[in-house]
Amino acid sequence: MWEDQGGKMYGWRGRVGVIVSPPNTVVEGEFAQMAPRGVSVHVSRLDRPPQAAGPLSRDAVLETNRDLPRATGGLSELRLDVVAFAHTAGSMMGGVKYDVDLAAMMEEKLGCPAVTTTSAVVEALKTLNSQRLALLTPYPQEMTHREVEYLEAAVPGLEVVSQRSMGIESGLAIGDMGPNVAYREARQIDASQADTLFLSGTNWRTIELIPAMEADLKMPVITANQVTMWSILKKLGIDARPGFGSLFGQG
Questions:
Q1: Rounded to whole angstroms, how far apart are CA atoms 76 and 95?
Q2: How far apart are CA 240 and CA 250, in angstroms?
Q3: Which listed CATH number (3.30.930.10, 3.20.20.70, 3.40.50.12500, 1.25.40.80) goes with 14-117+226-249?
Q4: What CATH number should be reported for the domain whose range is 120-224?
Q5: What is the pLDDT of residues 54-94, one digit of tens each?
Q6: Rounded Cα–Cα distance for residues 180 and 195 (Å)
Q7: Which of 32, 114, 172, 226 has the most CB within a 10 Å radius?
């Protein structure tokens, strides 16, 4: 929906650059819903090389990430206030140092703070004092295992007590799923021992279901795009819009 900016430029409170994976069809829509008035979002997209074509896998993700410096450079003329790499697998599959190095490269190229979805997830889990995580991903099982290893290594004291992998090997197919699929899949995971549920994947439409999931499960529910926007807004020093889960009430 068009929103009157009062004669000001778009992004008068904050101008955000976002880099997404080649098949991502969800980030723009979910970020537009969550962005407060006066915050503009500008997207650059990775190109997938021929050698990374085929089913979704860790190797394909890391090979595609080689294009990140070029995609970052495409935002260089925008005088951004924050840049985000909105790609959960893209920033998690290489390990902790890999994620830190990606953020450092973006900051050096653009001269502004950088966040990744992975760093945002870790920050959110620490803020919520999460110790027992239920994890739901649309990815193949091998990628979900990598995610479990990463989160348990990056968040002190965290244990992934339950996990569910949907095994989808096409990024475009993930983006085509509606939020009803995420809700029903999330209700299939055993969250009885968990204190937080994480729905992973920035190309997965999930933000509409967060309030219902939190009400039904009686625990915080975080999603990849939600935590990324939350981290962006913290960098900007701007309060989050209500309606997207209890995390948005955390400073």
A1: 27
A2: 9
A3: 3.40.50.12500
A4: 3.40.50.1860
A5: 777 888 888 999 999 999 999 999 999 999 999 998 888 88
A6: 22
A7: 226
